[in-house]
Each structure stands twice: as C-alpha cells, then as structure tokens.
Specification:
The structure holds 3 protein chains of 3 kinds.
Chain A: E1 4-13, E2 16-26, E3 31-35, H1 42-49, E4 57-62, E5 65-66, H2 72-78, E6 80-83, H3 95-106, H4 122-132, H5 147-160, E7 165-169, H6 177-194, E8 197-201, H7 205-211, E9 214-219, E10 222-227, H8 229-234, H9 236-243
Parallel strand pairs in A: 3-8, 3-9, 6-7, 7-8
Antiparallel strand pairs in A: 1-2, 1-4, 4-5, 9-10
Chain B: H1 6-20, H2 27-50, H3 61-77, H4 82-104, H5 109-129, H6 131-134, E1 140-141, H7 147-150, H8 152-174, H9 177-194, H10 199-225, E2 227-228, H11 235-248, H12 255-271, H13 277-291, H14 295-304
Antiparallel strand pairs in B: 1-2
Helix pairs in contact in B: 2-8, 2-10, 2-11, 2-12, 3-4, 3-5, 3-10, 4-10, 9-10, 11-12, 11-13, 11-14
Chain C: H1 3-7, H2 15-46, H3 53-70, H4 77-99, H5 109-131, E1 147-150, E2 153-156, H6 157-179, H7 181-191, H8 193-198, H9 203-225, H10 235-250, H11 255-275, H12 280-294
Antiparallel strand pairs in C: 1-2
Classes of the chains: A alpha/beta, B mainly alpha, C mainly alpha.
Chain lengths: ~250, ~300, ~300
Amino acid sequence: MSLLRVEGLKKAFGGLLAVDDVNLEIQAGEMSSIIGPNGAGKTTFFNLVTGYLSKDSGRVFFKGDDISRLSPPQICHQGIGRAFQVSNLFPRFTAFDNVQVALMMHKRMALDFFSNARKLLRPETLKILEEVGLADQAHLLSKSLAHGDQKRLDIAIALASEPELLMLDEPTAGMNPKESFKIMDLVAGIARARGMTVVFIEHDMDIVFSISERIRVMHMGRLFAAGKPEEIRENREVKQIYLGESE
Amino acid sequence: MIESRSNWSWALGGIMVLAVLPFFLSKFYLHLASTILIMALFAMSFNLILGYTGITSFGHAAFFGVGAYTFALLSIKTNWPLVLNICLAPVTGALAAFVVGYFCIRLHGILFAMLTLAFSQIFYTIAFQWYGFTGGDNGIVGLPSPAILAWDKGFYYFTAAIVSAGVVILWRLIHSPFGYTLWTIRENSLRSSFIGVEVNWHRLIVFTITGAFAGMAGVLFAMLDHQAFPNYFHWSLSTEVLIMALLGGMLTFTGPALGAMVVTLLRYWISSYTLYWMIFLSLILLIIVLFLQKGIIGTITERMKPPELRT
Amino acid sequence: MDFWQFLSLSWLPPLSILITQLLNGVARSMLLFLISSGLTLILGILGVVNFAHGSLYMLGAYTCYTIMIYLAQDAYSFWVALILAPIAIAIVGAIIELFLLRRVYEAEGIMQLLLTYALVLFFSDFVRLVWGPQYRDVNRPEVLGGAVFWGKVIFPSYNLFVLILGPLVALFLWLILYRTKFGKTARAIAFDREMASALGVNVPFLYTTVFMMGCGLAGLGGALAAPMGSITPTMDISIIVESFVVVVIGGMGSFGGALLGALIVGVAHAFGILILPRIAMVSIFVVMAVVLILRPWGLLGNPLGPLTK
C-alpha cells in the first residue's frame, strides 16, 4: 500500500486550472521530488494535500485513510509535516521555543491549561535542534537567524510533529550551492534515521538529480512525467518544457 | 517569554504593598484603589486576547456589563444567596463572550473588532431601552453587599484577594501549553495551524475566558458602587480597557495593570476639570500609536534586554 | 388573530405604505452606499480600514449645518454647502493622511486600526465641544421641500433626489476608476504597490489623493444626510457600524458588494422600523450573522482577498 495516494486532484482559481487531474502514489521510504516551471501548480498541489486549500474534486489517501476533507491541524496529527518556501516561523520566539511549541502540539498538549510549559519536553527539543544543527543558536530569536538557518528551523518545526511524510517546498531557495547540498544531505540523513518519506519541490537541478530516487514533473497543473532520474533526464518532452523548442 | 525566580520576589512585594495600603489611604483613595485593582484585572485579562493572541476587540465592555447586571438583577429580583450571584457573573460573562465569539471568530482584524463593537452596542441598547427588565437608563441601584464588605477596608481586601487570585490564574494560563498556542496564533497563525493548533477554536476559547474575567470585574465594580448602569456596556469603557492594555504594553504581563492605574488616575483628575475626557483619551492613543508602540513597560523591558533578544 | 387571518396578510400595512417604506429604504441605502464606497475605496487602494469614516461623515453633516446657518439658510445655502462640505472634509482627510496615517503604514496592522480609532474618539468629543451636545437640524432646500405623488404613494422629493444622486455618484466613481489614467494607476497600486512604484508611479501622492476622495465621499454623505434627519454627536458610531455591516454583507473591497449590501441593510432597516421599531437595528445584525455563517467573505466578496475585482 502506498503511503500517499492522490486521485484526480483538481483546483481552479477563477478560470485558471492550477491543478488539473493529478494522480500519483508515493511509497513509504521514498525520497522524491516534484519539479516544473514556475506556475506549474506545485505549491498549490502541496496546499491541497495538506488541507490548506479546498479541492474542487479529487481525493487524497494517507496510509489508506481518506484525508481529503481534513484541515491542516488534523493532517498534521495524521503524520504529514510541511516546510515552507518562505520560512514560516514564529518570529519573536527563540529557535528553541519554535521547536518546543511544535513538540507540545504533537504530544496533544494544546488544551493543557495548567502545566508549566517552559519545563516541558526540553531534552526532546534539544535533540531536534541538534538534528538540524541549530543547537548552538537555540537561544536566539528566530527572526535574527541567517537565512539558511531559518530554513533549517522551518524544517525542525516540521520534524517536531514526527511526520511519516515530510513535504518540503523549495528547501534550498536562496542558498548558495554549498549550503544547498549541506541542507539536503542533512534532510536525507534525517529521513534515513527516522524512516521518513520525503517529497520536495525544487528548482535546483543539481540537487534534484543527485538526491531524488524518483522525480515527478508538473506543467500547467498536470503531472507530466514521473520516473527515475535517468529516465527524466532523457525525456525529451521534459527538456522541451524547460528549455523551449529551440532544443 | 522569560520567567525567573525574581518574579516571586516581585509578586511578594506587590502583595505586601497591597496589604498595607489601606492603612495609609483615606476612604476616598481606598475606593479609588479598589477601582484601579478591578480595572487592572479587566485590563490584564483583556490583554490575553490583545497582546497574547493578537485579537483586537472593541466591545469587551459588553461582558463587563453582563457580569454587573447578572449580579444586580439576581440580587434585586431573586432571593438567591449573594455568593451564588457573585459566582454567576463570570459564568454569564463567559456565556455572552462565547455567543458573540461564535459569530465573529471566523473574521480577523478590523472586521472582528467592528463586530464586537456592534454586538456590544446591542447589549448597551438592550440595557438602555428595556425598562421592564433592566431598569433602562435609571440603572439598578441599591445593591446589597454582605456586612463585612460594607466596611471599606473589608471590601478593599476582598477585591484585592480576588484580583490577586485572578492574576495568578492568568499567569498560569499564559505559561501553560495552551498559553503557548495563543502566542503561536499571534506570531504566525498559519504556521500555528500547520503544527496542529485548531486556531479558531483556541481563539474562541480564549475569548470566552476573557469574558469570564470581564464579568468578574463587572460584578466587583457593581458591588463597589452598589449600582449597575447601562454605560457599563458602553463602547467608551471598551476603549478605556484597550488603551490601558496598550499604554502599559501589550506584550508584557504587568503592563496592563500599570495602564489601568494611569488611565484611571488620569480620568479622575481630568474629569474634575472638563467633560471632554475622550479627547484626552484619543491623544493618549495617538501618542502610543505614533511614538510608544510597545507601551510604557514594554519600552522599558525592551531596553533592558540584550541586543539579540530585542524584537 | 387566527392562522388564516395571518396567512391572508391582512395584517400588513397597505401596499402604498409598503412601497413608500421600500423607497425610503432605498434612498437611505444610497446614502449608505456613498459612505461604504468611500470606505471600500480607501480599503481597496490603500489597504487601510478607515474606522474614522463615520466621524468624517458626521463632520460633513455638521459642516453643512454651519455653512447653511452662516448663509441664513436661504434658498442657495444647501447647494453651496453640498459642494463646500465634501471639499472641507477632503482637506481634513489630506491632513490626516499626510501627518498621521503615513507614519503607521509600515507598522503592525493593529496600529493603523488604533490610529483611526483614536480619530473616532477625538472627533466624537470635538464635535460636542464645538457644536454642543444638542441635536441640530437644517431645512431641506425649498426646491426639494415637497413630495412626489404616485397613486397613494407619497415620496419626499428630497429622498428622490438622494435616490438619483447615489447611482450618479457611483457611475462617476466607476468612470474615474476604470476610464481614467488616474484610476488605472490607482488600481495598479492596489494590485502591486512596489511594482507600481518601480514603474515610476508617485505612490504617496496617489495615496493622499485617494484618501481625500474617500473622505470627500463621506463628507458628501454627511451633507446629504443633514436635511434628512437630526444631526447628532452619535451619528458617527451608528453609521460606521452600519457601513461595516454593509461591507461585511457585500464583501470587502467590492463596490458592487457595497451597493448590494447597502440595499439590503437600508431596506431591512426600513421594514424593520415598520414591523418593530425597537429591533430595527437587530434585524440588520441578524442578516449579517446569517451572511457570516454561510458566506464569510460576503455575498460579492472574493474568498482570496479584497479588491481583486
């Protein structure tokens, strides 16, 4: 049984079909990517799967359960974690607090009115910060972190929910090649250690082809092609989408 | 979000000051002190939604008034025990807040604020016009209080005790996991929902809680003045409590209490010279918005932080 | 009254009265629409929710009063006031935008809200200070003092005037926004401020001008309202609450929505008065509550955000 199965997903904005009849299956343990030109519908696809946008039609199954109608908090508790294209942090919290509060939510403490939150889950929080390499900056306000560190924190927050499926939206956006590889190696290592499935949206082709086990290409809202990196690399239509007819 | 042992010494110091105050103040100033304490409770609890959750309400006087009128009406029209009447005030305050919140909670920002104002206007109109039930603009006068509270020092201690208990509850609430969810909603409600917080439910819950506190403040005020008037529902009171929280500093815990003291004292002082208190209030608000956005205590604590922790 | 009497609707006031009320309601709607479109204009282009809009409306009414009294309420005084009052309010708006609002564009959203709220407080007492707390009245201009008769329906000429003026102003507004360079530039700013600025548009100038226009509309509404009822120091709160209900029902940032919302609110109010005067206001809130539950972004609003059409 596949971890994530999407059937006939459709979403239109006004007259524009942002996601057009997408079907895909992601297997557990897979490290895959979704690529495509700007406006292909990749982020919209993420938004639909994680319940942030309502679907016009189509269904989403996670571990066999139909999650099509669930809201983002509910989907988070199901085991899908998400990191964002532009770092989506709690700016005036410290890095430590950012992760700590996500952990608390994961442990279903949302309606705990009495405990002293500051003391809770400290070792677990530190562990996650160490996983992403931010332990030494834990006490800094998240908004003062460097760009690359903010993206790490973004991922750390998603990791706190102990997701089985981690969805990363352009994790290396705004980074130089060295940083990009560092962070993707980090993600790959964490995924292996936790047995986590990862799907990421990316524009950096070096990263995409070196790390993905499977690549899916989206264009104008449709899932255009899917396959192993070598297959995609040889696919003429994919080349056309990116490079234009002149190739 | 920083807590330390020095909080205990501050709290202890505060309690000692409160305890000895009556021996230094005349009856009039003791009455004023009680008023300030009640407003401090109102403002600090109001800050739960304003500063800690990021919700702006322009109509919180509605729940203050509901608490006051619950006590007043029950005292006048029924034979129920006084203690019960007092305890029911926060309950009805919470209920009213739940109902109003239920309709408004899907909106954010200005629209939410406007709707809370609109709802509080409804409450005000009902209190003002429904002679048969609420006594209309005559209000309800001659409210009883137990013999011990007729003694002005007694009432002061009673108020101080309840306010202190309220403050402790607020403190625990803010530093609980639930409190943390409120902060996440303020900082980034989108991400908050993605880490598993049911944002709108939490906003409704905290709104209801502040309704309870407002109701409590209302009944204390009604007992202090032995009366309940429609202007307990008026938007000018909602404005005052908002300014109290802002003036002190909406990102601080004690700020609103300081704001309550300053605004209450200013009002007593300025009202003795002129009717046009609103103009002064508006100038205070303008000064805060243009120059003092973090409030008095907020600005001070900000200066005291090491640079990397400044927001 | 038994069930069949109820069903036969014989308890309803006669048709002529119903039609009169309907027309009065629509006239009032036009007034509301004027004010709500000023609000929508400022919201859509500047992204500012001008809480003080009701106060400017009130100022417009008082200014109209003062001008008319100064001219001893002679035959032309109303028309002079109708032109001067909106201009005066637009100037007030310019002062507000230039010296106050500008400083909080970059601050947290709540600060804008509080600034306009401070203005509400200020004008509320200011009006009491300058004109006193008692209600004021002005007469309708002679030429519009009568009524129009249509069968049994008696419709005040002045209300007819307002009824006609409303759509005219709406048309004028539409022409400016969609058929002039100024309007196109303004809408471009609403869409993408930075881009517009990068393309050489003088954003600050346009902001001030649009704000002045919005305030002028409020002032016009106030001046028009002056002869219709009493001028009171509590006009500001009641109109701003109603305007926001209009905007909620119609949808933020939509002019069509403002029109629709204004019509709904105006007519509901008119019939509410007929049925049970005390709860006329409450009936409007009921409508609003229903809209909020079923369609929180308003009837003609855009789920994605204001002023994308």
